[in-house]
């Protein structure tokens, strides 16, 4: 059985349909299509989820008094009280352990791990307990815990503040793994995650926190388990997620000046994986480049490349290539732009895939 589960045909984030997110009478009317930053969209999603369900709790390091390092949780403690939005000690393992206990008691915890590099002390609780409870109990005990983690690089942060942890969570069966790239997806994917009976690792691309976009809280975005084609093309499918979606779109504009047509697929949900959309894009183009920030060896791109090659071999005109970070620890901020995969690294892969000299 594959670790990276697929979205069943004609099914989204079952058994939690999106309609249940919208129909709670406690939610106030919200203006349609408001322009928000990703930070504001996540804050709105947390606010709306807490307003809709008194069992939703938000907690973590500095999330209440300070409103979070990035002010993502600003105002929640004042609105809902310190019993529902509260600060914790600097103890990530305890944060997740408490989340599991609260879920067992009927609450819906939304803990924050302050930075991606701080999640490692919580790894034992996540991998050994959070991910396994539903299967251990044959589905009798839900584990509706959404672990929010500001993730990835691109902001010039210090050590331990710019990690790509997705491969660890993807290899841990029992976890959903979600990465938004737009404010709208940040809002809706977080609402779906909080409504899920399964534990969700919600990775927030920090470099996109201040990007602005329209968020319509009355018109649901596609659910967990659905990818989105952000740019149609005919020559190369670029498969990516999070902060690199914008990089891929910029590369597509530059590629067009050289006569290359790129199709950009935003995965949105890494597990469950929408392989149907990936396959359709690869069949249209005959070529694929996978792009992610994490190290190349055993990164998520390796799994995607292997699966595309295995299942779509006769549709490919060239090998599946990867534009990734390097197999080194994340560098100091002054070297970050050199380390991170960017437009040049992606277009180099495109050139190789197109067979150009």
UniProtKB/TrEMBL annotation:
It holds the Pfam family Transket_pyr. Its cofactor is thiamine diphosphate. Its EC number is 1.2.4.4. Gene3D superfamilies: 3.40.50.920, 3.40.50.970. GO terms for molecular function: branched-chain 2-oxo acid dehydrogenase activity. Keywords: Oxidoreductase, Thiamine pyrophosphate. Residues 36-211 form the Transketolase-like pyrimidine-binding domain. It is an enzyme of class 1 (oxidoreductase). This is 2-oxoisovalerate dehydrogenase E1 component beta subunit. It comes from Mycolicibacterium frederiksbergense.
């Amino acid at each position: 059985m594959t670790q990276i589960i697929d979205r069943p045909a004609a099914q989204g984030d079952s058994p939690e349909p999106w309609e249940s997110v919208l129909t709670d009478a406690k939610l106030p009317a919200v203006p349609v299509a408001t322009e928000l930053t990703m930070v504001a969209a996540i804050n709105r999603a947390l606010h709306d989820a807490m307003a809709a369900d008194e069992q939703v709790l938000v907690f973590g390091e500095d999330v209440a008094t300070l409103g979070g390092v990035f002010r993502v949780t600003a105002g929640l403690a004042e609105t809902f009280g310190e019993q529902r939005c509260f600060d914790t000690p600097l103890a990530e393992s305890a944060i997740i352990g408490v989340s599991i206990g609260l879920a067992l008691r009927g609450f819906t915890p939304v803990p924050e791990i302050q930075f991606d590099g701080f999640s490692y002390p919580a790894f034992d609780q996540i991998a050994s307990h959070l991910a396994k409870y539903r299967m251990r109990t044959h589905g009798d005990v839900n584990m509706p815990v959404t672990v929010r983690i500001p993730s990835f690089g691109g902001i010039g942060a210090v050590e331990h503040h710019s990690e790509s942890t997705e491969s660890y969570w993807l290899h841990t069966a029992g976890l959903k793994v979600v990465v938004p790239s737009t404010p709208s997806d940040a809002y809706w994917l977080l609402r779906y995650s909080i409504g899920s009976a399964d534990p969700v690792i919600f990775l927030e691309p920090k470099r996109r926190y201040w990007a602005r976009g329209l968020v319509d809280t009355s018109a649901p975005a596609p659910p967990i388990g659905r990818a989105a084609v952000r740019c149609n093309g005919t020559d190369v499918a670029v498969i990516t997620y999070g902060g690199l979606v914008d990089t891929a779109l910029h590369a597509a504009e530059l590629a067009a000046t050289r006569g290359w047509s790129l199709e950009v697929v935003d995965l949105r949900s890494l597990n469950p994986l929408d392989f149907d959309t990936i396959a359709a894009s690869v069949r249209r183009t005959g070529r694929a480049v996978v792009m992610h920030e994490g190290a190349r060896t055993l990164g998520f791109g390796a799994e995607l490349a292997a699966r595309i090659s295995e299942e779509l071999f006769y549709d490919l005109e060239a090998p599946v290539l990867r534009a990734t970070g390097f197999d080194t620890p994340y560098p100091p901020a002054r070297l970050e732009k050199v380390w991170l995969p960017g437009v040049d690294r992606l277009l180099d892969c495109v050139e190789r895939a197109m067979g150009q000299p």
